[in-house]
Amino acid sequence: MHDTSVQAAHHAPPTSFIRKHIFSQDHKVIGKQYYALALFAAIVGMFLSWLMRIHLAWNNAAIPGLQLLSSSGAPGGVMTPEYYLQLMTMHGTIMVFFVLTTAPFAAFGNFFLPIQVGAEDMPFPRFNMMSFWVTFVAFLVLMASFFVGDGPTLGGWTQYAPLNSIGAVGGPGQGTGVVLWAISIALFCVGQLLGSLNFIPTTLDLRVKGMSLMRLPLSAWAWFITSCMGLTAFAVLMPACILVILDHVAGTSFFVASNLVLNDQVLPHSGGSTLLWQHLFWFFGHPEVYIAIVPGIGIVSHVLITNMRRPMLSARVLIYSMGALAVLSYMVYGHHMFVSGMNPFSSLAFSFPTLVITIPSTVVVLIWTFSLYGSKLRINSASLFALGFISMFVSGGVSGFFLAQPSIDIMLHATYFVVGHFHLVMGVAAMFGIFAGTYFWFPKMAGRMMNETLGKLHFWLSFVGAYCIFMPFHYLGMAGNIRRYSTFTDDFLQPLIPVHRFITVAALITGAAQLVFLYNLIHSRYWGKPAPDNPWEATSLEWSTATPPPFDNFGGKHPVVYHDPYQYGVESSVGDYLMQTSPEQVKTEHDEK
Which of 92, 122, 448, 502 has its CA 20 to 30 A from that of 346? Predict the structure, then answer.
């Protein structure tokens, strides 16, 4: 811990529009830029999921205008099987990388981490600016694949080898589309590495006087742990993507074995390993699950404590549990490869830590549950989405027990059971964490309050809708419904089509509910009720400064921290809480030195 007057990055306030709003080095502007990018990406991803769901429910239905996006992929507006896979690949890639990774970590973390530690900015503001713009270019490159060559890649967001390296002979999008996908993801990794390199020293070196590590808010701990994961996970995926590009443009054979025959052609590759890609990808891929969900754990904990008006049973154990999730996430990646033909003993070796990782997850849920028990929870949009996060996290996590067993996973791996599992535990739960953070921090970010009635309507439509969509996926999986099929022509799949139509209707309604959120967000930004500095009567540093925060966060002052961030349920001069910056001493058992 150091005095920020010595260690903090200093740069003059911008004077031009471009330096203030576009190429800004201000961490708050960069956080908003990340949020805007994630919001746009989420709209694109949701639109693609609508197209896929409509096609699955009514295979021969023409979707008006779809042929304008791809005349060969959707002649007459009717989707071909290949184009279905291309849309599925883009949906997965956009949602995993540009929404679930970007919003909870890069957007909220950029805006609030420096303020929560009491710093004026990140230590490397130019790198911070570069991290966003590199990520933005990565998104443009990915979207460009819709409009070049024969469209985007159809290999799924996992891009398994050898399909990702054999070129155009593998199908539509497997030439230029794969190269653009790999360039996009490699650039995305660069952006995340630059971001992680800023988050770590911000947490360790820029804490204000009195801010010991154990006085950091849980959200700050979550961003710090996530940045450590990102530093190692993205450093593996980036070179893997470069190897894919080399297989396409430089004649190398990193991921294609010798004498591979496709369409009666012997492919000109030799000596590569198809499993090498899976090892590299899943070494990144499973930590990525926690890169998406750990920030949500921190945000939800921060929101719940404020609304419970009392601390968690043990913030320290919760921090240790998030750290355990980060460490164990690197030891379980092999459970994604149970069907790859690995040695059965290796399967057992990966199955055991997969079961062990449920322990810290369970501890986190128990701490939430018993902390909530008996509390007088304030019901608002943020706390509702925080409760929804817990519900989705538990529901999705339970199905993970089945997939941790190699013998069961082999049966379920290629089915909708897996789709339902990871959508609940990684997708919907993380989205609920993003919504909780948005409703909670919007007043500080925009200076205005969001409409609570619309927020609660948004929650209930999303909560019910998410269960209507993703719980039937588990039934479909147990019934043998193969995932990634664009049509269900087999006899055993025909009775499942009504279930798919129910899911599609639920998806359309739930998607429409997100338009309520979008309207609330935009309307409140310009016409919402002006927000006070501390509307939730919260205690951490972001609520001790003006709304919205000034350029240097604290108006030229360097706050001093006297307490841990969750002094609730006390009798102080301002109410039942005590700000971290208040020198007032009250009788409490929660202050951690």
Answer: 92
The confidence band for 5, taking pLDDT boundaries of 50, 70 and 90, is very low
Q: How far apart are CA 351 and CA 345, in angstroms?
A: 10
Question: Three-state DSSP class for 273?
Answer: coil
Q: Would you call the peptide bond into 162 cis, given omega within 30 degrees of 0 as the criterion?
A: yes
Cα gap 223→228, rounded to integer Å: 9
Q: How far is CA 472 from the centre of its chain?
A: 23
pLDDT at 593: 47
The Cα–Cα gap between 541 and 111 comes to 13
What Rg value do the Cα atoms of the chain yield, rounded?
A: 24
Q: Do the strands 567-568 and 577-578 form a parallel or antiparallel pair, or are they unpaired? A: antiparallel
3-state secondary structure of 578: strand
Spell out the residues 6+ positions from residue 236 whose beta carbon is closer than 8 angstroms to its own.
280, 283, 284
CA distance 506 to 462: 10
Within a 10 A sphere around the Cβ of 465, how many other Cβ atoms? 20
Specify the DSSP element, H or E, that contains 567: strand 567-568
Contact criterion met (CB below 8 Å) for 122 and 115:
no
Average pLDDT, the chain: 93
Residues contacting 578, CB < 8 A, separation 6+: 539, 563, 567, 570, 572, 584, 586, 588
In eight-state DSSP terms, residue 450 is P
Task: Provide the 8-state DSSP code for 266.
Answer: E
524: pLDDT strictly greater than 50? yes
Q: Which residues contact 417 (CB under 8 A, 6 or more apart)?
A: 399, 402, 403, 473, 474, 476, 477, 478
DSSP structure class, residue 78: P
Beta carbons of 484 and 156 less than 8 angstroms apart: yes
Whether 446 contacts 524, CB under 8 Å: yes
Shortest CA distance to 112 belongs to which of 547, 557, 584, 561? 547
Q: Cβ(308)–Cβ(390) under 8 Å?
A: no
Assign 304 to helix, strand or coil.
Answer: helix
Q: Which residues contact 297 (CB under 8 A, 6 or more apart)?
A: 218, 222, 318, 322, 364, 433
Looking at the DSSP bridge assignments, the partners of residue 265 are 262
- What are the beta bridge partners of residue 482? 415
Residues in the chain, overall count:
593
The alpha carbon dihedral of 522, 528, 533, 535 has a sign of negative
Unique residue bearing structure tokens 């719940």: 304
Terminal alpha carbon distance of the chain:
13
Q: What is the mean pLDDT of residues 551-562?
A: 91
Ramachandran category for residue 488: left, alpha or beta (phi over 0 → left; psi -120 to 50 → alpha): beta
What pLDDT score does 117 carry? 96
Q: Is the dihedral of CA 265, 270, 274, 280 positive or negative?
A: negative
CA atoms of 490 and 492, how far apart (whole Å): 6
What is the rounded CA–CA span in Å between residue 325 and residue 356? Answer: 10
